[in-house]
Amino acid sequence: MTSVATNDPARVADVRTAGRPGPVTRAKGAVLAAITALALGTISMVGFAAGNHRWDGPVMIEVTGSHGIHFVDVFGVVPLGAGVLLAMWCLRRAERADGDART
Q1: Phi and psi for 70 in degrees, rounded to 5?
Q2: The pLDDT of residue 10
Q3: How far apart are CA 87 and CA 76, in angstroms?
Q4: Separation CA 49–CA 9 (nearest Å)
Q5: Which end of the chain has fewer CB within 10 Å, C or N?
């Protein structure tokens, strides 16, 4: 029996998704990556702010008699912001994966 060319969608394999995971698998991976990015950003922020650094600087806001927000603690927002941006990027990339036109 010879093979015959066909345009029947039921018989033609989709070339765009050949060998790649489906949208559900990509979505699960993107959510996992987003959660990981947020967790690492939060852990980095807490480690940065809670550490006893030599360069803490002056207390900007006094919370209690022995605790306060130091000048350098504000820089702890940088890893949290990076984690949030990375999480947003992962989730947006998963949304775009349906059409795969833009990457």
Answers
A1: -85, 165
A2: 58
A3: 17
A4: 58
A5: N
User: For residue 5, what are the contacts with CB-CB under 8 A and spacing of at least 6?
Assistant: none
d(CA 36, CA 28): 12
pLDDT (tens digit, 9 = 90+) per residue, 6-23?
666 555 555 555 555 566
CB 4 within 8 A of CB 64: no
Which tokens in the block code for residue 79? 């890893």
Average pLDDT over residues 25-46: 85
Instruction: Give dist(CA 79, CA 92) in Å, integer.
Output: 20
Run of H or E including 89: helix 77-96
Integer Cα distance of 63 and 49 in angstroms: 14
Residue 102 confidence (pLDDT): 47
And the tokens for 73?
């603690």
* Residue whose pair of structure tokens reads 């093979």 in the numeric block: 3
Q: Is the pLDDT of residue 96 over 70?
A: no
Contacts of 59 (CB under 8 A, 6+ apart): 68, 69, 70
